[in-house]
Design a protein that fits this description.
Layout: E1 4-14, E2 32-36, E3 42-45, E4 57-60, E5 66-70, H1 76-109, H2 113-133, E6 139-152, E7 158-162, E8 165-169, E9 174-181, E10 187-190, H3 199-219, H4 221-226, H5 228-245, E11 256-260, H6 270-275, E12 282-283
Parallel strand pairs: 8-11
Antiparallel strand pairs: 1-6, 2-3, 2-4, 4-5, 6-9, 6-10, 7-8, 11-12
Helix pairs in contact: 1-2
Length: about 290
């Protein structure tokens, strides 16, 4: 792996059990993200507003038409309820197929309607006993995960000087994969399952499925936005050390540093960078 500068780390408690698939499709230019904040007030932005994290929101195109609606993440109780409904549906489907098979076997074996009814009653009784004995399976994992981000030193950097300010266009932040799963602090829960399921196998499958799902989360814009300012400060500190080593970080040379990332400004030349106006990320005497 090329040399890299670690710029941020984000630790979260996640509930990846029964993980839904994530949509990794790109967002078109001009798209707005809108939701209602906890007070019911509409909030919109060209990036997902912080008020929309963990809430249902809409993506609205340039024409004002809703492109898609993203539902709020399910709570652990909702996930458990969904798993229960799905398990019950599968049991009912199995019971129906078994009933149909036995009905056909009866038709092929017996000619008397009375004989058929007797055998059907026995079959229904057996199915009802099976359903009564069945229970819903719930398997959950709760684990702390650290998302880390870095910049590749080999990626293009752009620097420019304006008065006593050093302007820096840093490379794009990249997630350090795979995310760090703190298995020593993992909490697992499993309730008795259907007879044909093995709860230990279910928990093992959940653990195996965690890494690709967490990698998708590390790449999404919402998680990267949470560490953007910490990353900016890390880059500014890195540049300050370089200026100090060159004897340029002093009152008569450079006294402030501005750090930008490629997704924050369209820059193709030093002149583009010099025209940008942003608050300094780091100032001499305030670092």
């Amino acid at each position: 792996m090329p040399p890299a500068l670690r710029v941020a780390a984000l630790s979260l408690w996640l509930m990846p059990a029964l993980l839904p698939g994530l949509n990794g499709s790109a967002v078109a230019a001009g798209t707005l993200f809108c939701c209602n904040d906890p007070n019911g007030k509409p909030v919109c932005s060209d990036i997902l507003p912080q008020e929309c994290y963990g809430r249902a929101y809409r993506e609205i195109g340039e024409s004002g038409r809703t492109l898609r609606t993203i539902e709020a993440p399910l709570t652990p109780e909702q996930r458990a309820q969904r798993a229960s409904v799905e398990a019950q549906r599968k049991v009912e489907e199995t019971a129906l197929r078994e009933k149909q098979r036995k009905d056909q076997a009866l038709l092929n074996t017996y000619s008397s309607e009375k004989d058929i009814e007797v055998m059907r009653s026995r079959a229904i009784e057996e199915v009802q006993k099976s359903i009564k004995a069945a229970e819903t399976t719930i398997a959950e994992i709760r684990v702390p995960v650290s998302f880390r981000y870095h910049l590749r030193l080999s990626d293009p950097w752009r620097l420019a000087a304006r008065d006593q300010t050093c302007l820096v266009l840093a490379p794009q932040m990249r997630p350090s994969l795979p995310p760090a799963i703190h298995t020593a602090e993992m909490e697992r829960r499993a309730e008795s399952g259907w007879a044909r399921f093995d709860k230990n196998e279910q928990l093992d499958e959940l653990e195996r499925s965690m890494t690709p799902s967490l990698e998708q989360r590390a790449r999404d814009a919402a998680h990267q936005e949470l560490v953007r300012e910490a990353s900016r400060q890390s880059v500014a500190a890195f540049v300050k050390k370089w200026l100090m080593r060159e004897g340029q970080w002093r009152s008569d040379r450079f006294t402030s540093i501005i750090v930008l990332f490629p997704d924050e400004a369209a820059v193709s030349s030093d002149q583009d960078l010099l025209r940008l106006s942003h608050e300094p990320t780091l100032r001499l005497g305030k670092d």
